[in-house]
Amino acid sequence: MASAALGAGRLARLFGPDHALFVYGTLQFPEVLTALLGRVPSLEPAELTGWRAATLPRRLYPGLVSAAHGRARGAVLSGLTATEWAILDAFEDDEYDLRRVRVDGRKVPVWTYVWTVAADPADWERDRFAAEHLAGFTARSARWRQEPASFFDTAGPGWSDPGA
């Protein structure tokens, strides 16, 4: 029996309840997931060969871009409800495309958000983000979750790097 699509737009391709999401940026932090979803779904460490988490101009979060010798480290997020998928999709910029990828060591492809416009040549630094921006980003994520319409930044829901 076929299930209904989980949503419109990018989510229209997802059917059924068992879709995992490879996260490689801010969504791999339990604090951010809690601010957005009110809980931390299952997170398994994972790597994606042939891709990298790239620094983006004037943004605190990365974009996943193809890289012949790259390796994006992150996690596979699973057990998301349709409502949670909709929250995470709204949280992502329009410059992302939802695509299926094959994460190292997994037989079944998972979904991920791939960056579709120009990215910096430098890789995003997870530890630096955690040390310098995670607390503020988490607080801002919680405010966005309460009032998403109040965030009008062209770089997503208000996540521009104030130091850029």
TrEMBL record:
<keyword id="KW-0808">Transferase</keyword>
<dbReference type="InterPro" id="IPR013024">
    <property type="entry name" value="GGCT-like"/>
</dbReference>
<dbReference type="InterPro" id="IPR009288">
    <property type="entry name" value="AIG2-like_dom"/>
</dbReference>
<feature type="domain" description="Gamma-glutamylcyclotransferase AIG2-like">
    <location>
        <begin position="21"/>
        <end position="117"/>
    </location>
</feature>
<protein>
    <recommendedName>
        <fullName>Putative gamma-glutamylcyclotransferase</fullName>
    </recommendedName>
</protein>
<dbReference type="Pfam" id="PF06094">
    <property type="entry name" value="GGACT"/>
</dbReference>
<dbReference type="InterPro" id="IPR036568">
    <property type="entry name" value="GGCT-like_sf"/>
</dbReference>
<dbReference type="InterPro" id="IPR045038">
    <property type="entry name" value="AIG2-like"/>
</dbReference>
